[in-house]
């Protein structure tokens, strides 16, 4: 599972940087300032949670059977897809996905709770 999470983190990190550069160079003149800010929020959350995903994967190398760390990693991935992905779709495609963005945020919160509990039980 650690290897999969590290590979997903590399993909997420790559796309996060690419999307951030895309926003800075190609979208700056095409999107209203408030929508550019929404897009940049998606990039920021994606990159921060990519770093968290790397941390969880590294902990899984030490505690490979930890269900809490596995759950945390999965929730970080789902949170990135739902939260950041919905913000990208909203700004680029005009799609309003309603509850999807907050569900992604709840996934992030749950991932952090699982992460903390996993640390508490492992150390």
Structure description:
The chain has about 120 residues and is mainly α. It has one domain (about 1-120). About 85% of the residues lie in helices and about 0% in strands. It has 4 helices and no strands. α1 (about 1-25) packs parallel to α3 (about 65-95) and α3 (about 65-95) packs antiparallel against α4 (about 100-120). The two termini are about 20 Å apart. The model has no long low-confidence stretch (mean pLDDT about 95). It is found in: Membrane. It is a multi-pass membrane protein. It holds the Pfam family DUF423. It comes from Halopseudomonas bauzanensis. One of its GO terms (cellular component) is plasma membrane.
Q: How large is the share of residues in beta strands?
A: under 5%
Instruction: Report the radius of gyration as a whole number of Å.
Output: 15 Å
**Span from first to last CA?**
20 Å
Q: Could you tell me the number of beta strands?
A: 0
Oligomeric state of the chains in view: single chain
Indicate the percent of residues in helices.
over 70%
Structural class: mainly alpha
Q: Give unreliable regions as ranges.
A: none
Count of the domains: 1
Overall pLDDT confidence? 96
The major pleated sheet works out as:
none
Shape: elongated
Number of helices: 4
Helices and strands, in N-to-C order? HHHH
Write the layout of secondary structure elements.
Layout (H helix, E strand, L loop, with lengths): L1 H26 L5 H30 L4 H27 L6 H23 L1
Helix pairs in contact: 1-2, 1-3, 2-3, 3-4
């Amino acid at each position: 599972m650690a290897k999969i999470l590290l590979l997903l983190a590399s993909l997420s990190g790559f796309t996060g940087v690419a999307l951030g550069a895309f926003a800075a160079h190609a979208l700056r003149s095409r999107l209203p300032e408030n929508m550019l800010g929404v897009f940049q929020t998606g990039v920021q959350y994606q990159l921060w949670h990519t770093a968290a995903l790397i941390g969880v994967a590294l902990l899984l190398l030490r505690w490979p059977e930890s269900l809490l760390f596995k759950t945390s990693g999965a929730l970080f991935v789902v949170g990135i897809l739902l939260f950041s992905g919905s913000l990208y779709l909203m700004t680029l495609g005009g799609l309003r996905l309603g509850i999807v963005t907050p569900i992604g945020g709840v996934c992030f919160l749950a991932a952090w709770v699982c992460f903390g509990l996993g640390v508490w039980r492992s150390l």
